[in-house]
Amino acid sequence: xxxxxxxxxxxxxxxxxxxxxxxxxxxxxxxxxxxxxxxxxxxxxxxxxxxxxxxxxxxxxxxxxxxxxxxxxxxxxxxxxxxxxxxxxxxxxxxxxxxxxxxxxxxxxxxxxxxxxxxxxxxxxxxxxxxxxxxxxxxxxxxxxxxxxxxxxxxxxxxxxxxxxxxxxxxxxxxxxxxxxxxxxxxxxxxxxxxxxxxxxxxxxxxxxxxxxxxxxxxxxxxxxxxxxxxxxxxxxxxxxxxxxxxxxxxxxxxxxxxxxxxxxxxxxxxxxxxxxxxxxxxxxxxxxxxxxxxxxxxxxxxxxxxxxxxxxxxxxxxxxxxxxxxxxxxxxxxxxxxxxxxxxxxxx
Amino acid sequence: xxxxxxxxxxxxxxxxxxxxxxxxxxxxxxxxxxxxxxxxxxxxxxxxxxxxxxxxxxxxxxxxxxxxxxxxxxxxxxxxxxxxxxxxxxxxxxxxxxxxxxxxxxxxxxxxxxxxxxxxxxxxxxxxxxxxxxxxxxxxxxxxxxxxxxxxxxxxxxxxxxxxxxxxxxxxxxxxxxxxxxxxxxxxxxxxxxxxxxxxxxxxxxxxxxxxxxxxxxxxxxxxxxxxxxxxxxxxxxxxxxxxxxxxxxxxxxxxxxxxxxxxxxxxxxxxxxxxxxxxxxxxxxxxxxxxxxxxxxxxxxxxxxxxxxxxxxxxxxxxxxxxxxxxxxxxxxxxxxxxxxxxxxxxxxxxxxxxxxxxxxxxxxxxxxxxxxxxxxxxxxxxxxxxxxxxxxxxxxxxxxxxxxxxxxxxxxxxxxxxxxxxxxxxxxxxxxxxxxxxxxxxxxxxxxxxxxxxxxxxxxxxxxxxxxxxxxxxxxxxxxxxxxxxxxxxxxxxxxxxxxxxx
Lengths: 349, 505
Prior knowledge:
The structure holds two protein chains of two kinds.
Chain A: E1 2-5, H1 11-35, H2 40-52, H3 55-80, H4 88-106, H5 112-141, H6 145-165, H7 200-217, H8 219-229, H9 231-236, H10 241-268, H11 279-289, H12 294-318, H13 323-344, E2 345-348
Antiparallel strand pairs in A: 1-2
Helix pairs in contact in A: 1-2, 1-13, 2-3, 2-12, 3-7, 3-10, 3-11, 3-12, 4-5, 4-6, 4-10, 4-11, 5-6, 5-10, 7-8, 7-12, 8-10, 11-12, 11-13, 12-13
Chain B: E1 4-15, E2 18-29, E3 33-38, H1 44-52, E4 59-64, E5 67-68, H2 74-80, E6 82-85, H3 97-102, H4 115-129, H5 144-157, E7 162-166, H6 174-189, E8 193-198, H7 201-207, E9 210-215, E10 218-224, H8 230-238, E11 255-266, E12 269-280, E13 284-288, H9 295-303, E14 310-315, E15 318-320, H10 325-330, E16 333-336, H11 340-344, H12 351-356, E17 366-367, E18 370-371, H13 373-386, H14 403-415, E19 421-425, H15 433-448, E20 452-457, H16 460-466, E21 469-474, E22 477-478, E23 482-483, H17 489-496, H18 499-504
Parallel strand pairs in B: 3-8, 3-9, 6-7, 7-8, 13-20, 13-21, 16-19, 19-20
Antiparallel strand pairs in B: 1-2, 1-4, 4-5, 9-10, 11-12, 11-14, 14-15, 17-18, 21-22, 21-23
């Protein structure tokens, strides 16, 4: 058996790759469900019902998809330009804590139309700063940003726990490490009444289109793609490499930081260290499942959120651990990577 | 009659609709050097990949010493005694020479290293074939020529009796190439059989006993090297007579680009030392030299990607500072980089994107940060049409173009803008004869239209055929110019060896 590189990739193949990968992941996790002694088809049905069966569950799924869309976009724009931002989780937390800090200390009394944009911005800026550091190290000293951005996740989370147990600690939280809350006026309005679904979902959706437009239509999009594909070729064509990658890092870090800000302003109002069940890391899976396409990110985030939310319902009904959702999402990353490989190569015997 | 060691019998292989190999048959005798000659895309590399087991043939078979070789199994090929020296070496730069040679030969489960025995064997092989190399040197520290020696030694270490070399001279200097051919002949004398792939007529004539010419995936001719000529081979290879265009007499104009004692220093190393030249409109100034003598720095300096440390540059008679790429392009300087796949074009981007990338900030291709796709694609389509770029249109991924067509694209995006100056570094390197002629014709056309061309090249024939005046670059220094009409290849060889320096001293 041999692998040969495909010279022409049919469009159908590119579009079908993610669904096939997800199908394969579902079959594989089906084996695990069967091993656990539950009926596989019913389990999947329960997941679907759990995610979309009621008004409450559907809005909950969309709420869960919101930060995933943003962290997914963050990973996708960075990976497109070959900036390996693995630090989405840290940028998410730093964005969240910056929002909580500014919202509870500086803008506590400001009206919503003023504080919401400013708070979203401060979250984004915090995320940017956390990614600019590894990028600077890469440009200046050729330090691999995979390692530095990944390790900064732990630094960021520790900084957050220090702050919420120290200067930002909420005195009314019965001693739990929890930050002070932003003012109610600064909370994002609900998109659907009597649910947790907030305007952050619309913001994320709009941003997906904006990112798509930037990447496909703007000079910056063209230059950042060139910089990612071939640094030497880009430099020869006059693309300012450092400046372009710097802007890419700002965009990517900013989106991940914004995810944190949106989660604070849309759902909780304050920060705890379990604010994110790995949104930053899942964002990488989402971006890969989407083939790094901004609009694909929306669908991939919906799939991931469906698995996570639906697995709760399934678990209650069939007594299977909710970990099956994590396993399925993780498997879908692996199957996607395999599928991408087969989309690029063909097998010859 | 000498014994036949290898027989390729009716091998065919298609990629989609493209028949890369069409019923190819050839033989190789013991102690023989066969050159596989053909243009890029004639199917040479495909054939050798089939022979080595990288590809499965659709039809046909390969016999090694009379026995069928199982197809599609590199391991079987290695085991049978076929060694391959790739164009891009398959060696690990962070390992030593000895470790590289031994890679893949030791049993995975063996606890004992065979380094001692391997060292002795490597030494014996190196002596036997005159391939001197230090077994403990780190591969990354070796020159390209030495790395190739290691690659050959690795094949010999695996007891190869047939050696396939894929364009072995593509990365070598002329001197290194001559040494290589000496080694190949010695190996043949000692009973090894060799196939080398090439599209360079000179080396085929110099090194091979027999020449097999491929064209369009078919064997079109087979000649003994002693009974043929370069002209005949060129014709067989291309299918019709090709003559490289030669410059005609032409009045040159005002000086447009002058350098006076320009030096470039990178990390404490002098890349260019007090370089001076004067380039006139409507002339071609050839810069010859063995690669690695500062050509890359000179080209980068004039292309706007490298800053000078001292010296003056006058553009159109005015002193200028260090120009950025954008300034360079905007002031009418066209640039053809030495390495088209690394710098000249970005393979994964579309042809139109590569056509406009260096001009994307100009108002005709973008407004307020938005790319004007229609204008960019139209520009690319003009280039594709006017410069005869084949194998795709404006939206094709550039990687899918052949080397010659990619070069036509790069040439086109420069010449379509009627540059006043053209900096051309190795513009015809690695191209087949037909494409070389096309590129040369375009450069001469530009000269006639008044463009000043700085031609940096290692190919003497190219420089003699095109340039009006010639300067040699040696160790980062430029010789004084000589008129191309007054020198021959021998005199140029002396210049490239730095002979003028003694006169000056």
